[in-house]
Amino acid sequence: MPDTAIPPTTANRLVAEALGTFLLVFGGVGTALFAANFPADAESNPLGVGFVGVALAFGLTVVVGAYAWGPVSGGHFNPAITLGLAAAGRFEWKNTIPYIIVQLIGGALGTTLIVLIGIFGTDNWLANAQDSGFASNGYGTGDFGSPGGFGLGAAIIAEILLTAIFVLIILGVTHSTRGTAALAPLAIGLTLTLIHLISIPIDNTSVNPARSIAAAIYGGPGPLSQLWVFIVFPIVGGLLAGLLHRALFEPKGTLPPVQATARLE
């Protein structure tokens, strides 16, 4: 039978991006706040999922989000990825701003719903979560800094390097001829899991400005004062990766045509 599927509209794509970013933030930040250490005051953390659980939560949300909504929007769920794909010639620059706006909205909705759940928590759960930074990113040794006490330089290097690696892998596994479409979401999710395993102790892992903004808006003045690092340097890493991929892996004169989305189908 002929393929009669109707291509997704711009509205479809934007809603898919918002939903995917919501899932990523709600699942990852929610795991960090609700389940990383459980009960919250347990010194030995007998039931909490810890760093490994949080890393898996971020990776799994990307896997399921990319399978569910990647065929609609491309499954970016991250401004750094959107800009990196544009730099690589895989996404139209004119569409980057709408994508980024809905990603920020989806991320903020994710943490807002965590707050609404937290209102009904016991023992001042919400106040304690906000007092501890609300799973925000950070550097240094202050109350809202790096979990491992790493400084600003470490955060900058980690965010540029790990975001660049993330975007390079995405560009590789979603390539129209060299990629493996059916397994691309799994590879992307596993990469994000690995990135979190490496860098949660460094700066609580951003590689995604939408995730960082969504947490910081409820984390208070401390996380907000450091937020610029987790907006600027993931974007730098994404852009560098896009340009590097284009220079190294796309033969001159044979670049793939600019697409409305970077398809995972």
Automatic annotation (TrEMBL):
Q: Note whether Transmembrane helix occurs among the keywords.
A: yes
Membrane topology, as annotated: Multi-pass membrane protein
Kindly list the places in or outside the cell where this protein is found, as annotated in its UniProt entry. Cell membrane
Q: What are the transmembrane regions?
A: 14-35, 47-70, 100-120, 150-171, 183-202, 227-244
SUPFAM superfamilies recorded for this chain?
Aquaporin-like (SSF81338)
Q: Which Pfam families match?
A: MIP
Q: Which InterPro entries match?
A: Aquaporin-like (IPR023271), Aquaporin_transptr (IPR034294), MIP (IPR000425), MIP_CS (IPR022357)
Q: Does the keyword DNA repair apply?
A: no
**Family the entry assigns:** Belongs to the MIP/aquaporin (TC 1.A.8) family.
Could you tell me what this protein is called? Aquaporin Z
Gene coding for it: aqpZ
